[in-house]
Specification:
This protein is mainly β. The chain folds into 5 domains: 102 residues, Immunoglobulin-like (Sandwich); 67 residues, Immunoglobulins (Immunoglobulin-like, Sandwich), CATH 2.60.40.10; 72 residues, Carboxypeptidase-like, regulatory domain (Immunoglobulin-like), CATH 2.60.40.1120; 83 residues, Sandwich (Immunoglobulin-like), CATH 2.60.40; 66 residues, Sandwich (Immunoglobulin-like). Helix content is 4%, strand content 51%. It contains 2 helices and 39 strands. The strands form 10 sheets. Strands 1-9-2-6-5 form a 5-stranded mixed β-sheet. It has a 5-stranded antiparallel β-sheet with strand order 19-18-21-22-24, with no helix packed on it. Strands 26, 27, 29, 30 and 31 form a 5-stranded antiparallel β-sheet that branches. The radius of gyration is 35 Å and the shape is elongated.
Length: 446
């Protein structure tokens, strides 16, 4: 047999061998940008490009542009390599999977950039299974904080996505004024998981729709709009609903709202019964029962009745206020004319919730008031540096990102962030009662 025949035979054998059928494939190439709210670091190199090839295999030899051998570092479900600036293609070789030449999409690999792609391997008899899978979270409300394993993400638009190992993972979602929700999810290799999470609100809302576009809607004595309107945060319980136009009251009733309920009250024309607006009188003190101070804006409306009223504070040192006017300490007894009144208590600079009530007949009224409570606000503090130490008025409270609770409303406080290698960032913020203020501080490297 001639030498040429022998070489041709050997080439054919090599071509038909299992090694020839083995292959590799690179897909889903993308540039990765740093997530400032993710604890996972994202390194870059000043002179070279960083590339993560997602694979569970090891033993690869890689050359940039087919001539420069690059160092490959194995990681958790990936291999990482540093390629020269402007690398156009990679030659990837493996003892079991053969060789593939992969052309870099677009302008190639650039220095100071971090890239990622999936490196798939295949050979006869091997069943390929994904080691990682995508999970997409859709959360209500949109401004929630999401914990997945050790990752922490502050949501802006209610969505976030992760690529995680196949199997079970713990997650927790929290948001101000909502019930926290914690659970586990399980990822499979069949398809990505879309996880919807809707947090239950602590507060209730009342929407009122009327056939009177210019009628003013009051909830617990506070105007919320005309014609159709929705209240702010309400606690569960009875709330006084009033519809007024000019000097007439068209609807007057109490509405019960359950915890976390978004209640809608539809008023029809048949529900509206116009009666003269009840006069809101100034307080008639017990020590001056003959005083009769009429509201100057309603002097043409005559008071219909008076009722004896007893208001008791939780202790003898707590102040009682009627329509925000201090009337007694510990206990108040006297007569109030027909109309709407707002009663609350005050002690040591703290105010209780307002208790609204009506005097609409001559029957005695008895109110036992609750203790004063502070009106607190929240600060949602985040930065371009994750894990920075947060100080509120020089007191350490946590690490970014973090929601600081129980801050006295309307009282300015100093927020300061510190982190090694960065200059301190500081701002003065005024918390808003029963609401959250978003605080973003940018830190600069020293």
């Amino acid at each position: 047999m001639s030498r040429k025949v022998i070489l041709a035979t050997l080439s054919l054998i090599l071509f038909l061998s299992p090694v020839g059928a083995q292959k590799m494939k690179v897909e889903m190439f993308k540039r990765v940008k740093k997530d400032l709210l993710n604890h996972t670091p994202l390194p870059v190199d000043k002179k070279q490009a960083t590339l993560d090839l997602m694979t569970d295999e090891t033993g690869f030899a890689i050359k940039a542009d087919g001539k420069t051998e690059v160092k490959v570092e194995a990681g958790d479900g990936k291999i990482t390599l540093l390629a020269p600036h402007k690398t156009k293609f990679l030659v990837i070789t493996h003892p079991d999977y053969g060789q593939v030449t992969w052309k870099i999409p677009k302008k190639g690999l650039r220095k100071k950039k971090h890239y990622q792609a999936n490196l798939l391997t295949d050979k006869p008899g091997k069943e390929y299974k994904l080691s990682k899978q995508w999970v997409v979270f859709k959360v209500e409300p949109e401004n929630a904080i999401l914990h997945v394993d050790s990752n922490v993400v502050l949501l802006r638009d209610g969505t976030a996505q992760f690529i995680l190992p196949i199997g079970k993972h713990a997650y927790r979602v929290e948001a101000p004024f909502h019930e926290e929700q914690a659970d586990t999810l399980e990822l499979t290799d069949s398809a990505k998981l879309i996880k919807s999470v809707a947090l239950q609100s602590f507060f209730s809302y009342l929407t009122v729709r009327t056939p009177m576009p210019d009628g003013i809607i009051f909830v617990d004595g506070q105007p919320i709009g005309k014609g159709e309107a929705t209240s702010g945060h309400l606690l569960a319980g009875d709330h006084h609903l009033l519809l007024v136009k000019g000097s007439m009251t068209y609807y007057d009733a109490y509405v019960n709202v359950a915890r976390s309920e978004k209640k809608v009250v539809e008023l029809a024309s048949s529900d509206l019964q116009p009666i003269p607006l009840k006069l809101k009188r100034s307080v008639v003190r017990a020590d001056s029962a003959l005083a009769q101070k009429q509201d100057s804006t309603h002097t043409d409306i005559q008071a219909l009745v008076k009722a004896p009223v007893t208001i008791t504070a939780p202790d003898d040192s707590t102040e009682i206020l009627i329509n925000l006017e201090s009337v007694a300490i510990g206990k108040w007894e006297g007569e109030l004319e027909e109309g709407y009144y707002a009663v609350n208590t005050r002690k040591d600079g703290l105010m209780s919730d307002i208790v609204p009530f009506w005097v609409d007949d001559g029957l005695p009224k008895i109110l036992d008031m609750s203790a004063p409570m502070a009106n607190y606000g929240l600060l949602n503090i985040h930065s371009n540096v994750v894990g920075a130490t947060i100080y509120i008025n020089k007191i350490k409270v946590g690490m970014t990102p973090y929601v600081v609770t129980n801050l006295p409303a309307s009282k300015p406080c100093t927020v300061r962030l510190t982190y090694a290698g960065y200059r301190d960032a500081e701002a003065t913020v005024v918390p808003i009662g029963n609401d959250m203020v978003d605080v973003e501080l940018k830190m600069k490297q020293q």
